[in-house]
């Protein structure tokens, strides 16, 4: 455990946002997204330092330690940085490109300049705070140049990089006018982590294709080994960067902190059910309001099932809890208005006075409240068109260790690789979505034992693959790369029967 800045995480966002109330009072509130949910417990365990943006432009609060003992080090972004780096290059260029062009990416030179400038800014902050020889773990697509810049500024650091979103196929990535710079930036790391083996393969294929430009060289994947637990094939490979360093690339499926999951009291669940009209079936969607999440498709499928009589509006309720996200970006505005129009239309058609069929919240809710929604829901709908992992699916499963409930899960969410006992669907095909929802509802009603077996199996997968395993696998693998003795908490030999990723990447 550090506490001395020997373990530094750098992410675009801090785990808290600075909120200014109309009366001028300032308050820190939890910031959105899966990255924060996953990394918070890891940082707490390390008592580490977290470098990131405080969620509002032009604010530069002093570093402070939060109540969990994590040192938060805010990075100031100007309004111009916010527009060019965050809204522009990160979320209107990279986000759609890495999510398989669900909307069209915009390529804009000024945004690229802003992205570079802000990556330099983050690098200066990290170079300033990280202890000699510290481990620095760079997070996500907003900071892909950071490993390369840090490598130059602070060659003493051990640098890891983890991408929380999908890594696209080389054909898509190669559209990016600044592709070589991004690859070079990433290759500054000692270890690059991605959620899934398929993303690793995309990255390796890409570096093969553009190696002439980046000076890198990709070896053959060292051995595509299947671990003791076959749900996700763990693969590792190495690339030789332009400066001759060996860079590891491997799959580490992210997860949740099961120990922090609070099972609500039975009364809380009963109260919620009563509040929404005591329906026979409660369905639930929980997402950032993002066009990648397939919220509109899920509403359309629900509407058609009501229309056809497959679902009875007197017996079913859908709760949709949507966190506001990236609200000034055009495609997010469009997604929100489409969702809200559909909610209004469905209620207009199928609700009765005092009894909506869709309850829609456009806000972030506390974790304790969220767990009541999860525990109450009979059917969870995760219908993303593309999602790096999707922690919501795992959070739902975590609350159903008793075998209750059913998970409808998009086959395009990374989580489907592990949670393959869910009712899988193709959200691009409304019939497939409807079929999966129907099957889940029918299974609960007619074949509860089989539904329970499936949920118990899902729960076992999440229970045995939590975020602490994710973090320690990554850290062990990093240690292996920097030539230090690899240590696993269980004492297993890396690469042995423990199934850890460490040791799967060649170190010779
Ligand atoms: P992403 O990182 O793209 O937002 P994930 O599903 O991986 O998607 O993670 C979302 C995280 O945000 C989860 O931890 C989930 O509990 C949380 N979350 C989503 N919607 C809400 C909401 N309305 N209120 C509070 N937390 C939310
Ligand atoms: O995991 C994807 C991710 O984009 C994170 O990088 C990010 O912190 C989170 O979702 C929420 O998005 P934003 O920071 O843009 O609100």
| Number of individual domains | 2
Largest pleated sheet: 10 strands, mixed
Q: What's the CATH class label of the largest domain?
A: Alpha Beta
Q: State the helicity in percent bands.
A: 40-55%
What does this structure look like?
It is globular, with a radius of gyration of 23 Å. Helix 2 (79-98) crosses helix 3. The longest helix has 21 residues, at 109-129. With 508 residues, it is α/β, with parallel strands linked by helices. The strands form three sheets. The chain has a ten-stranded mixed beta sheet, with helices on both faces. The protein has a six-stranded parallel beta sheet with strand order 15-14-13-16-17-18, sandwiched between helices. The chain folds into two domains: 5-251, Glycogen Phosphorylase B (Rossmann fold); 258-464, Rossmann fold, CATH 3.40.50. The chain has helices spanning 34-46, 79-98, 109-129, 146-153, 170-173, 179-186, 197-214, 266-275, 295-308, 330-350, 367-376, 391-398, 430-446, 448-464, 467-481, and strands at residues 7-13, 16-20, 26-30, 49-53, 64-65, 71-74, 135-139, 158-162, 191-194, 217-218, 236-240, 246-251, 281-288, 316-323, 358-361, 379-382, 406-410, 423-425. Helix content is 40%, strand content 17%. The protein starts with 6 loop residues before the first strand and ends in a 27-residue tail after the last helix. Helix 12 links the parallel strand 16 (379-382) and strand 17 (406-410). It is built from 15 helices and 18 strands. The structure holds adenosine-5'-diphosphate (ADP) and 6-O-phosphono-beta-D-fructofuranose. Adenosine-5'-diphosphate (ADP) binds next to helix 1, strand 13, strand 14 and helix 12.
């Amino acid at each position: 455990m550090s506490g001395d800045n020997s373990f530094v995480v750098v992410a675009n966002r801090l785990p808290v946002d600075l909120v200014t109330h109309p009366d001028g009072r300032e308050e820190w509130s939890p910031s959105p997204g899966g990255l924060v949910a996953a990394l918070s417990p890891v940082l707490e365990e390390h008592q580490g330092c977290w470098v990131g943006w405080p969620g509002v432009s032009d604010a530069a609060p002093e570093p402070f330690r939060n109540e969990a003992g994590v040192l938060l080090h805010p990075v100031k972004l100007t309004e111009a940085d916010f527009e060019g780096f965050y809204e522009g290059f990160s979320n209107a260029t990279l986000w759609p490109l890495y999510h398989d062009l669900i909307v069209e990416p915009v390529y804009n030179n000024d945004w690229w300049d802003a992205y570079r400038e802000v990556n330099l800014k983050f690098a200066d902050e990290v170079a300033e705070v990280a202890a000699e020889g510290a481990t620095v773990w760079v997070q996500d697509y907003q900071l892909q140049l950071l490993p390369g810049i840090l490598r130059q500024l602070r060659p003493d650091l051990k640098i890891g990089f983890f991408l929380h979103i999908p890594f696209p196929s080389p054909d898509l990535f190669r559209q990016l006018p600044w592709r070589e710079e991004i690859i070079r930036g990433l290759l500054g790391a000692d270890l690059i982590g991605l959620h899934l083996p398929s993303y690793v393969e995309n990255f390796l294929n890409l570096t093969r294709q553009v190696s002439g430009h980046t000076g890198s060289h990709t070896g053959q994947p060292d051995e595509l080994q299947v671990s003791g637990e076959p749900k996700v094939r763990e693969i590792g490979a190495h690339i030789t960067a332009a400066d001759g360093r060996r860079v590891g690339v491997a799959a580490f499926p992210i997860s949740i902190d099961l120990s922090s999951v609070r099972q609500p009291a039975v009364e809380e669940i009963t109260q919620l059910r009563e509040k929404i009209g005591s329906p026979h079936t409660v369905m639930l969607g929980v997402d950032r309001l993002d066009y990648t999440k397939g919220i509109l498709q899920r509403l359309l499928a629900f509407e058609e099932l009501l229309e056809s009589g497959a679902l009875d509006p007197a017996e079913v309720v859908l709760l949709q809890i949507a966190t506001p996200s990236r609200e000034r970006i055009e495609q997010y505005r469009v997604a929100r208005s489409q969702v809200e129009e559909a909610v209004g239309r469905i209620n207009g058609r199928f609700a009765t006075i005092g009894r909506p069929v869709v309850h829609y919240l456009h806000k972030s809710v506390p974790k304790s409240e969220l767990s009541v929604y999860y525990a109450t829901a009979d059917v969870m709908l995760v219908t993303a068109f593309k999602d790096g992992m999707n922690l919501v699916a795992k959070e739902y499963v975590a609350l159903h260790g008793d075998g209750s409930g059913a998970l409808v899960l998009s086959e395009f969410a990374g989580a489907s690789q592990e949670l393959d006992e869910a009712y899988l669907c193709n959200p691009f095909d409304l019939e497939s979505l409807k079929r999966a929802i129907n099957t889940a509802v029918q299974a609960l009603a007619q074949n509860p034992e089989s539904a329970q077996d499936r949920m118990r199996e899902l729960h076992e997968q999440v229970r045995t693959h939590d975020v602490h395993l994710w973090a320690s696998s990554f850290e062990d693998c990093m240690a292996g790369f920097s030539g230090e003795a690899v240590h696993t908490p269980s004492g297993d030999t890396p690469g042995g029967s423990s199934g850890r990723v460490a040791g799967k990447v060649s170190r010779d």
